């Protein structure tokens, strides 16, 4: 663990002086954080850059801004600042009885803070988009619900107000029941409950379905004497525990643990000398970290909780341990006021009444391995079912006001497209039918016939029993060979060829495959594994002819190579029989039985001395300025002719082969990536950086069961001819059979499709196939939009947008495979605009792109 006190004291003193910082909150993307407190004559909300806190070099770099924005709209002290879960809005509440909601203004340039030197400029501009007025006393805390459906605020007027975050300033409800100042709020992670804590020595749990009280907990607080400025309670990310501030046990200050099951209060966090002011759970759920080399052992997930107190100390607890993970005494000069974790779960900011903040950096070895969002959602679904916020989204979206004109345009286009698809088939069934035909019978007919054949019996007690049927997979996809293009030119054989049989490549390599003396044979590309020599040409403008044994000179039998490119002929002699040849628009490669590989330019000039290989060549390929050779001892090599270097050097295929497996297809992409397809349906690519990678598997259940029919573009043939589609041997008719005939639960079908699309995306990236990468990226984004997967969609948009502010340590690349990432993001925006649920995400990134364009 690392503890840092950011060196912003000069700025702190300038803006807050010796005034306390009452609240701190880290932005969901981790690039900035907000603080709230007391200024000289007003309340202050400030937004800071996170980079100088995390990295010393950015802290010393004057070109990296520390403060991003200062807002002075509050008339009195600011008690709480909270970012919305999507990071688009910031809510603040203060002693002026107001709740303000802030949003970044995209079209306003940097400005100078009023009354300060020119160095203190607002790098970002945030404007107050709404002011929520209902409280009659100081606002002490605000909290966004999961999925940002509601915003709750509490006040010293003893009330809690629930605001409709979709339609500010509309109020959903005012919760009354506390008889003292309400000083803390927290939502449970699935949106079913809201908890509040007040000075009336009670903690109340409210149901969100009807906004009535679910539980009133008072026992742990009966002994409490005195008050604290805030009572910030927190709910664990698994939803099982609610931890309060300022409780007492045997006259000692504690943080009370309330179990969701029956609201029992049998456990607490102890050890602090004065009242607990703030509790904050880490957003991640953890599992025990596995040691290197040890076999994975099942372990119970656990949570991490930080506790701050008036005694100026901080303790961090793991629910799997009986004692705190760490305790830091005298961290500040005055009481701790607020705690905020980074979304990654490894960083934490703490603020104090002394006007300073501290940053704690943890490691995975200390906390454990965090569960993925999918695993976390599975826990929620298994325990609670779907979140109320999720289930009510559709109903709320139906009444959502479209704020962005571009969003409105995309919604209208989507509606028009939907009507155009529905109207022609108005008299038909609403369920789409498969057009695939197997043996003259559609898959839909096959399914109906199978259901007719089901066997029904009755048990002795009268119950009905149906004997299950085994429905085999019906795959209508065809294997389209990469080498189906017609061969320009012929191969002339005038002597017998001698080659070492290569059983690893193909068991058909036998002595019987030798050509008969004097026989002239013209081969097609599909024959190159069953006969030798062979020719492989990618460019139809190039033709190659080989004639073996044209003459005998000094005991050597000469072979002649003739090539024609764009009507220009050239020829050369080789001192050995040619086994195979290949050509592209840039180079021609010829492999002879003396185990030498000769490489010529497109005009016939020898580029290198012959390259000696470990054994005879079984296949050779040329693509652009790259050459690939596959030998009879199952080794693979690739050369970059222009840069005169080897990309893959004698890479052995033996690790991926077995006695029953043969090579059925090989391919070299235009980017110099070699691929090999095996008889077991698996395809591999090879590179120096990634070594051996599995690209495709025809027996892969993910590919067979993935259903992304609704996400396919209407006209895009770019992915049907690329190397990935070639090696997969089919055009991937999405959701062909398995998704239609099986009764797979939706959440499982969703996970399968998501895993498959991400595998396709990574495979296209590894193959450096630009058009296929773009094709699968758009399908992936459309699937995320249709399924409402905001977390993954935001991560994707964030990666494509890149950093808005310059940072010396940024490793973001503006392009991928030659495609500009921000241009790709522009292509994704209309897709995002199809779902009103992502209206704010759409507007956020649209404005960010517009701002970057103007810079």
UniProtKB/TrEMBL annotation:
Domain Protein HIRA-like C-terminal: 604-800
GO-annotated molecular function: nucleosome binding
Origin species: Neogobius melanostomus
Broad class of the protein's primary localization: nucleus
Region feature Disordered, mapped onto this chain: 414-438
Compartments (UniProt record): Nucleus
Name of the protein: Protein HIRA
SUPFAM superfamilies reported for this sequence: WD40 repeat-like
